[in-house]
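Progress report, Aim 2. The chain analyzed during this reporting quarter is listed below.
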Amino acid sequence: MIKTIEKYPVLSLLVLVLILLLPNLNELKVTIMEARNFIAAREMLSDGNWILTTMNGEPRYEKPPLPTWITAIFGLLFGIKNVFALRFPGVIMVWAIGVFIYLFSKNLTNDKTHSFINALIGVSSFYVFGIIIEAPWDIYTHGFMMVAIFFLYRVYNSNNKWDILLASVFIGFSILSKGPVSLYALLLPFILAYALVYGVKNKFVIKSLLVLIPGLVLGSIWFIYVRAADTETFSKITQVETSNWSSYNVKPFYYYWNFFLQSGIWTIPAICGLLYLFMIKRVKNGSHYNLSFFWTLFSVVLLSLIPEKKARYLMPVLIPLAINTGFYIFHILEKSGSIKNKLEAIPLYFHFGLIGIIGIISPLVCFLLFKNEMIEQQNLFLPLSLALLFMGSFLYLLLILNKMYPVFYISILIFTLSLTMAVHLNPVFTNQNTNYKSISMLKEEAAEKNIPIYVLDQISPEMLWDFGGIVHKISKTEHGFSFPKENMFGLLVNDSTIINTYELRSSYTVEKRDTYDLNHTKKYKPRYVNYYYILKKRNDE
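Predicted structure tokens for the chain:
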């Protein structure tokens, strides 16, 4: 079985990613970043705003359009309301990252098993797959850049023109996904690490420029066009985005130095792989380990230099970290029966032991925490519980027998099934708020009655996505609100007290019709609520 899996690594990675992500893909609620992407994609299809992208009818130039183009195409093919289909390209990008970690590692180590281990670590690292929900642009920009780095590595070691072309194209795609983010966080650290480890021989600088310059040109096309077509708006947005780097979400320099925690289940092996003095004496080829180590280190340092910091910005670090962690895991797996100092294998045995415990006790823990949900989903819970109990027990048997390669693969399956169980049974992902009410029907109901709908203060991206169309804003000027010309219209407000202002009440009769609440759990967020009123001009009474 293991030989078959390792014989077809690309297909095996696809199967794992699909098992890991597809069962949960439709369960998670649409996040704020997803909603922005989905809305822009919807308006590409409905209004043709493919280049000058919009959100709620207003310019949305904060993010380049390539991921949104891909989302829109899937929306066109499978329905723009089909969240599963809109998320699916992100799943493919996770798989692509795994494939190119494998191909890159294979070029680096010339060992298929080692390379496959690196790829499996990559796709099962927490923020690599988690980012497709939290920040959909990130998986594209870093995924495309990993492809570019694979071809760039080949450029450094050959003179193939196709490698130069493909490296440039995918650098361009990365820039068209989220600007220069991955250039800085993933590509630059790789180039610095490569130069440090292997030197700048063999026309290193020339080859780098041959790849970078066309890639930068390709990636800049959209920015240049938008700047020319809508200069004022583009400049305002650019100023805000630039100022955020130094004034928004500012964290101390050391904020990212727990980066290994973002690898999730691989935290313990990741720490071991970063013990440079320990590892450099044990790996087969020290220069290749040096590349992954310094690539990881430079990536963390460069990200730490930017004042604006968020946990999800660490996602690109997990790519070289997966390769670096693979050196430790492969060393232990390969030498498990012949390691002289058994202490060096203890962390990995402890790691696998924890995963075995998770497999054995997670059904009981889930039953105690989510008893009601399990009763409702017996058809899912029972087979998952039995599978986890069996695999957790079997993992311990294999540990006793010192069969470490099967232990590694089973540990990934245990993690995958545990994640599926947690997502499907956890009340966080279901509607526990009794006041929950979707706004999805309001658009059609208002259209039937010929009532235009406006928003007075704010509407969250999640609410706007659920609404299904554009909600025009009532602007406020120096002279007060600029109310619409219609004698009767619907009004959405986030702050209900604003409806009692004298300016509004003196001009309109106000009738409250409904409250739309997208809070899924009892953890209440006011921005998920909008109150709906019907306003009529008083002089028409």
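The chain has three domains: 2-252, 342-429, 442-540. The radius of gyration is 26 Å. These observations will guide the mutagenesis work planned for the next reporting period.
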